């Protein structure tokens, strides 16, 4: 599970929420990002450093982009539905995707944003698994396997 990997980045590596999600997902999903590539996600932490969109959400969207965009987002039939599902699930669980709204619900001084990162891992994995299951079933149906 994706969630099994985050602690080594968040606690052992001392990365922020955005860095933790991208690093754990890079390992789990084999995204092929290099160390230098992942530095780009650092500024997304703490809601783009301003309490705006949660860094864990932003990195989760980046993971979806890496998985479902071939070369251009507007040419992908997949990126909008998976991103919509991810955002919908975050809104369901927190009522927002903004760090300033999420943090009061899940931040603790001892564990910092652990709860948000775990939730982001769960949501991201659920969205990917569900979407891949649906599209796989649709592909088999089109091929007459059903």
In short:
With 146 residues, the chain is an all-alpha fold.
Task: Describe the protein's topology.
Blueprint: H1 6-12, H2 17-29, H3 35-39, H4 45-51, H5 55-68, H6 79-94, H7 99-106, H8 114-142
Helix pairs in contact: 1-2, 2-5, 5-6, 5-8, 6-8
What does this structure look like?
By secondary structure, the chain is mostly helical. It has one domain (2-142). Helices cover 68% and strands 0% of the residues. It contains 8 helices and no strands. Helix 6 runs antiparallel to helix 8 (114-142). The protein is globular and about 45 Å long.
Please describe the structure with a list of short key phrases separated by commas or semicolons.
single chain, about 150 residues, mainly alpha
**Apparent shape:** globular
Residue ranges: pLDDT <50 for 5 or more in a row?
A: none
The percent range for helix content is 55-70%
Number of domains: 1
**What's the tally of helices?**
8
- Give the mean pLDDT: 93
Give the CA-CA distance, first to last residue: 30 Å
Major β-sheet annotation: none
- Give the beta-strand count: 0
The H/E string reads HHHHHHHH
Indicate the radius of gyration in whole angstroms.
16 Å
Percentage of residues in strands:
under 5%
Question: What structural class results from the helix and strand content?
Answer: mainly alpha
